[in-house]
């Protein structure tokens, strides 16, 4: 009998025009995780692309909401309600303006920090007690607005930093699934990040 479930969500926007943009880091991490762990058979369910696996007797649902970033919570809330998954068992992968480019930070709860995807999830779950795997994208430069920055693609040395961070997050999720989230936080959070 399955007594525990997790929902692991990568945030992003559907559509070719958004591929590899800073706001699609959550999608990119799940793609990488899928490749590393040979996950296929993604299907459409409740406005998300999902794939389900068993891990040590626990059912894990990986989801990429297709509702666009600002409405991510619609899909996540519906899936959580359908499967009766508690907020504490939901892990969300997203970009973060307030972290330096390529820095990774894992947190068990917290504010949305201005991130519309996280705001939407909080509103639909009525909780901020879900785990976040955050990848730093830094603040806009060269007079760009926040929207231009998050919907733009990284360039120059930022590409490598973000790709390495995405690898680190995929690895941290594997580690957290084998061990637990606290050990993953201790091991993967950069102590120099403020």
Fold and architecture overview:
GO terms for molecular function: peptidyl-tRNA hydrolase activity; tRNA binding. 36% of the residues lie in helices and 22% in strands. The chain has helices at 25-36, 72-83, 116-125, 146-150, 157-178, 181-188, and strands at residues 5-10, 43-45, 48-55, 58-65, 90-96, 104-107, 131-136. Strands 2-3-4-1-5-7-6 form a seven-stranded mixed sheet, sandwiched between helices. The chain has one domain (5-188): Peptidyl-tRNA hydrolase (Rossmann fold, 3-Layer(aba) Sandwich), CATH 3.40.50.1470. By secondary structure, the chain is α/β, with parallel strands linked by helices. The model has no long low-confidence stretch (mean pLDDT 94). Helix 1 (25-36) crosses helix 5 (157-178), helix 2 packs parallel to helix 3 (116-125) and helix 5 packs antiparallel against helix 6 (181-188).
